[in-house]
Amino acid sequence: MKNIHIDDFKISSPIHIKNLPTSVDLEANEKTIEKELRTISKDLADIQNKMYAHGKYAALICIQGMDTAGKDSLIREVFKEFNVRGIVAHSFKKPTSLELKHNYLWRHYIALPPRGKFGIFNRTHYENVLVTRVHPDYLMYENMPDVKSVDDVGNAFWDRRFKEINNFEKQIADNGTIVFKFFLNLSKDEQKNRLLRRLNKPSKNWKFSSDDLDERKLWDAYQTCYEDAINKTSKPHAPWYNIPADNKPVARYILAKILYDTLKTYSDIKEPVLPPKEMANIDMYKHQLENE
Questions:
Q1: Closest by alpha carbon to 178, among 17, 85, 54?
Q2: What pLDDT is attached to residue 240?
Q3: Closest Cα to residue 252, out of 13, 15, 73, 104?
Q4: DSSP 8-state class, residue 20
Q5: With a threshold of 0.90, does the pTM exceed it?
Q6: How does DSSP assign 102-134, residue by residue?
């Protein structure tokens, strides 16, 4: 199986999204890829257990992608080996009335994982520079003092949001959160195939919405917004990774490998040891229990 390297997928310089791959050949069959994924998933779970005991780092995994990119199934397969106490996933949908009474980052702040845990954002704070940029009329629901109409939303507005997002990520990174941002890069042809499968397979019909077709018509607009967002917010403390998503098992494996290869570089993440006094008395404690 082909060995992959983080730098092959990390976005560390300006990109043109049309030049990013949506598929990659790992030189292995699907069964082999899934076996390797299970191994890495178990290794990640072991790291998570150490992180939970260590209690000094959190991991935030941000997953973005077009409809049908495979976000839900990826989360299920990559993190299935984790202890449930150490991981929490949030799927950010249309903001609630309460959320709209706060600034757009509020609901993401309160969903951040505490130190020792993994947090997954299935769709993320980037919806606020993607969906709202393609549909600026959605901003009217935020009832912001300086936005009376979409005519008030220009480049300066979006540049301010990018700055706010960069500051948000820098703040949490400086305080112990390891930030990963994954763009599940799906081709338009593959999205078409997946939408057709939802229509052709009765057990998948429930996943389909006619809104999916309306959003598909805006494909080029979304790609432009993704490109701008990635270029303006991929930073050393919170890098973006392009995950070729046309093949689901491949995408899952690559994302898991990036997580594992990055986290294992944190050599200070270790299970804590007992205080010297407790260690010195371990035999005595065992004796007490064995002779109850």
A1: 54
A2: 98
A3: 73
A4: S
A5: yes
A6: S-TTHHHHTTPPPTT-EEEEES-GGGGGTHHHH
